[in-house]
Amino acid sequence: MNQGPLGSSSATKEGTHMPHTSVAEAPVVAATAESAIPFGSHLTLDGYGCSEEKLADMDLVFEVLERLPGHLGMHKIITPYVVKAAGNDKKDPGGYSGFVMIAESHISIHTFPKKRFVSIDVYTCQGDLDTAKAKAFFQEAFQIEEFEEHRITRGTKYDIYPL
After folding, report:
1. pTM, entire model
2. Catalytic residue among 50, 105, 106, 108
């Protein structure tokens, strides 16, 4: 009765038998690179000419990380975390770094008040990201005068590989 993997049953080390079940093999139709749905969007924003006072406000950085996920239709899975980052003798004059993990990925903010500069990442696997809405939110919060924006499409082949 122990017929192995292709027979009707197979034996385990304990001597019990497990029935073999056959699975109908459907043809696998994989997406092509041209038709694949990307995994997500990663927006990086560098803000220049910001309000030094707002960038130096730890509570404001926390509030932005607390409110932005809901504003963009995302879901926080942890309370935002913000720490004071001391400056160094190189190019970093110090500021605040904050992070919030969201079900869709993460959002991070690094402020440099003395340089009136902020560096922001918004990464989401929820699909398309409303970059204009995100930029407007950050612009209002930190009074950003000028943006440098980069958008990266992540996981462009994610849909090609079946489970």
Report:
1. 0.76
2. 105
